[in-house]
Amino acid sequence: MSSLFPALADGPPERIALRFGERSLTYARLAAATGALADRIAGHRRVAVWATAELETAVAVVAALEAGIAAVPLNPKSGEKELGHILSDSAPGLVLAAPGDELPDALKDLERVDVDVRATGAHRPTETSDEDPALVVYTSGTTGPPKGAVLPRRAVARTLDALADAWQWTGDDVLVHGLPLFHVHGLVLGILGPLRRGGSVRHLGRFSPEGVARELGDGATMLFGVPTMYHRLAQALPEDPQLARAMGSARLLVSGSAALPVHDHERIAEATGRRVIERYGMTETLMNTSIRADGEARPGTVGVPLPGVELRLVEEDGTPIAAYDGETVGEIQVRGPNLFTEYLNRPDATRDAFTADGWFRTGDMAVRDPDGYVRIVGRKATDLIKSGGYKIGAGEIENALLEHPGVREAAVTGEPDADLGERIVAWVVPADPEKPPTVEELADHVARRLAPHKRPRVVHHLDALPRNDMGKIMKRALSHG
């Protein structure tokens, strides 16, 4: 397989490839820096990358990929135990870090190479195959230690090319985001995506509405974010005409990593005239579906399968759902060149993740409209509620709750019920803590919007919902006690 980043060799040399705050690299400088580092790390099978939101992280990962070496991004917020597990499991030969970064004790026995973004070397991509590992990204499992998903070069290339097709993404695009670089969203889509197109990326460091307004107002064409970021933008828009103009000028506003509530979609569209589009992926699959740039931006859906991706919904016994009616809930299974090859050192887990004929079991529950649009309703393990003989997805109830003026944030879970099997429980952050909405108010509100069997039977009021680094609500941290 040829280089994942042809623009390093034949792109416009003076075009800015990467910008982090005041620091930037042109394509010519990026090729020189990655060429020098690739020479330095040649011969290793895997290298760890201390994945701070800095220029050095991007250079380190690109250099590893150009050298045909698998990169293992490390979350700088990981605890010693988790880091120890990742290092013993992936056995990297080196750790790449920015000069001056203080590394924790878990890394003290690993040889360190400081990334010099001003170094000069020849750009000579190593000959590789499609199936060679590009990245080993550790998933935060709900049970047991994280598993290392081995992503081959083929998956990275095919996903980014499929997104280019869906989003009409070209080298003329300038992407802005403030995502962490140890996840697929920020690293693969947010850094490797622009570089594969020969375009530019501007990383905000810390996300802020002011940063978004500045960059989109200064020629950036695309914004990537997670729902918590778009929620903050939606809150800031009414008082910030500069932000509204800047977001309105963007070619594409993309949200991912969790569902964007419909009321935030509507507030942003009303203030900017632009619709946020959503896509759906996982560490193991990279991207599966997206709203297309030339398609209908339908709030609450993640669009249609990307080119090359097969997607089906199945019943609990694995039987494919034959007809899509926008109502029948099933588990998403996918197949295609975007998939990972294995969980590192976990043959049993790898085998269990796939059906006999090669479909990956995502564990995500969805409904599908007759025209192919997919609407995710939650995780099989935490978001599928079986109540009164119905299969109910938590996600649509959460969206309905968020339309109530007394609700700022909401999460929905199920708990055992002798009569119903499970009853629906709402966890709500009130808009006004002094006047929280009652269970009767919220139950009537949901019943009117969705159906009576989807109304919450219990409501807990909270100061905040527990969330992880990517803004996903950690439902297992919600206690029924």
Automatic annotation (TrEMBL):
The keyword Ligase applies. Keywords: Ligase. One of its GO terms (molecular function) is medium-chain fatty acid-CoA ligase activity. One of its GO terms (biological process) is fatty acid metabolic process. Residues 396-472 form the AMP-binding enzyme C-terminal domain. Pfam families: AMP-binding, AMP-binding_C. It comes from the Bacteria. PROSITE patterns: AMP_BINDING (PS00455). Residues 9-344 form the AMP-dependent synthetase/ligase domain. InterPro entries: AMP-bd_C (IPR025110), AMP-bd_C_sf (IPR045851), AMP-binding_CS (IPR020845), AMP-dep_synth/lig_dom (IPR000873), ANL_N_sf (IPR042099). PANTHER family: ACYL-COA SYNTHETASE (PTHR43201), ACYL-COA SYNTHETASE FAMILY MEMBER 3 (PTHR43201:SF8). Belongs to the ATP-dependent AMP-binding enzyme family. This is O-succinylbenzoate-CoA ligase. The lineage of its organism: Bacteria, Bacillati, Actinomycetota, Actinomycetes, Kitasatosporales.
